[in-house]
Amino acid sequence: MTIERRTIITGAASAALVLASGMPLRADNHNDWQGWRDQILAGRAVSDGTITLDLPAVAENGAQVPLTVRLDSPMTADDHVTAIHIIATRNPAPQIGSFRLTPQMTRAEAMTRIRVAEEQEILVLAEISDGRVFQQTASIIVSVGGCAT
After folding, report:
1. Would you say residue 17 lies in a domain?
2. Residue 20: partners with Cβ closer than 8 Å, 6 or more residues away
3. I need a surface site. Which of 68, 69, 82, 92 has the fewest CB within 10 A?
4. Does the structure show a pLDDT above 80 at 115?
5. Distances from the Cα of 20 to the Cα of 13, 15, 25, 104, 111, angstroms
6. Per the domain annotation, does 61 fall within a domain?
7. Is 0.85 surpassed by the pTM of this model?
8. Pure H helices in 21-65
9. What is the CATH number of the domain that holds 46?
10. Mean pLDDT lowest for which of 22-31, 76-85, 110-119?
11. Residues 6 or more apart in contact with residue 62 via CB below 8 angstroms
């Protein structure tokens, strides 16, 4: 097996860009999820409710846990959900994902499968076009963790 010089240079350049960006590759402790939340909120107040989470209470395998997030929104140009953010409060890398939505979407909904390390709360933040932010949490128990620490 031979490795081309171009492959090595490309890989090294990619690694250097990731390191130079200052972006953490993973959270060092279980409180780092609060930093992600604060960054999303950017000083805005948060309200409970209006978000429906479909997440199993118990997951046998934390490597593939189904999650559906729904909001009741008219999805018009003046009143729509602009983003849905999912945070796992006790995962090594707490930011599960962010979904950007537009008024052209027929409903405010995101479906995915997430990795869950251990028993924890999943926090969902939803940004609305008028600047409001809603949150909802759901607890999950995991038999076998799905994240390597």
Report:
1. no
2. none
3. 68
4. yes
5. 10, 9, 12, 37, 32
6. yes
7. no
8. 33-41
9. 2.60.40.2470
10. 22-31
11. 115, 116, 117, 118, 142, 143, 144, 145, 146, 147
How many structural domains is the chain composed of? 1
Phi and psi at 3, nearest 5°, equal -110, 125
CA-to-CA dists, residue 9 to 14, 18, 21, 134, angstroms: 9, 14, 18, 45
- The two structure tokens encoding residue 65: 């846990």
- Which residue reads 């989470």 in tokens? 53
Task: Answer whether residue 33 is part of any domain.
Answer: yes
CA–CA separation, 134 and 140 (whole Å): 20
Q: Tens digit of pLDDT for each residue in 17-37?
A: 444 544 444 444 455 899 889
Structure-token pair, residue 86 = 């999912």
Other CB atoms closer than 10 Å to residue 140's CB: what's the count?
21
Residue 66 in any domain: the answer is yes
